[in-house]
Amino acid sequence: MAFWEHLRAYREKLDITQIEAAKILGIDHSALSKYEKGDLGISIELLTKIKEKYKIPDDQFLYMLQDKRYKSENPILEARESKERYIENFQEEYVNEIIHLKEYRDFTMDIVHFAESDKERRKYILNRLKRD
Prior knowledge:
CATH superfamily of the largest domain: lambda repressor-like DNA-binding domains
Order of helices and strands: HHHHHHHH
Radius of gyration: 17 Å
Structural class: mainly alpha
Number of domains: 2
CATH architecture of the largest domain: Orthogonal Bundle
Helix content: over 70%
Number of helices: 8
Distance between the termini: 44 Å
Shape: globular
CATH topology of the largest domain: 434 Repressor (Amino-terminal Domain)
Number of strands: 0
């Protein structure tokens, strides 16, 4: 499995879209698509940023770079922990910047109170964004 395949698989394991990943990495969505298809080489600077933003553990990142399959003792737990690290970092970097805004807190409470499932929450958010 080539690095670009590991890169795509890891992003998917985090359950983030290419658009979200591109925003976090500060690159264009189409460039990320090319990196994940192996159509474009990745600079050392971007590799460092990917490791940092995706919160990839050192040993796992080394396996990815060496084109080796990372063998986890508990892949389900490892995937959950990877996603938790990413979400924690996301909260620190983005949510903490706007949590002081009353509108953000109101919007968040509305989402939680008026929608019971993720599907309903997505629909509520999209409808609300179209309205505003």
